Amino acid sequence: MKKHTKNVGISIALGLLAAVSMPLSATGSAAEPEDLNTLHDTGLCGGCDLYGADLSGADLSDSHLIGADLRGANLRNANLSNANLEGADLAGADLSGANLTGADLSQADMSEANLDQANLSATTLYEVDVYGAQMDNVTLTGASVFETGIGVGGEEGVELQDRP
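Above: the chain sequence. Below: its structure as tokens.
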């Protein structure tokens, strides 16, 4: 009898452990489901909690994401052209291969973000935190870069000018 009771106790404990850990692995992020739905349905998601969301390859062109929490989000190959990302928190986000043409990134936090091969043509980068960001093969054609620590050219690099 004792052996059977012990096995049942272990089975219950393992079942509870699986039940508790399943929601964490099933969602893969802490993004608010309501905010994801709002973004998908309207493209208007200012201040939304999209922390760690998987938005890879998503068409978010013309979206309004002012002040959105996109820390650690997967935005690989996403289309964010003409998106308003003013004050958005993109720290640690993966924006590799993303299209940010014409986007407004004023006062965004892009520290530790991956911007490899991102297209930032005609973007507005005013007071953007890019500390520790990866930026290999970034396109900045026609971008307005002010008070943002992006260096260009050669081994020494050239700091882009501050706003007059």
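The mean pLDDT is 81.
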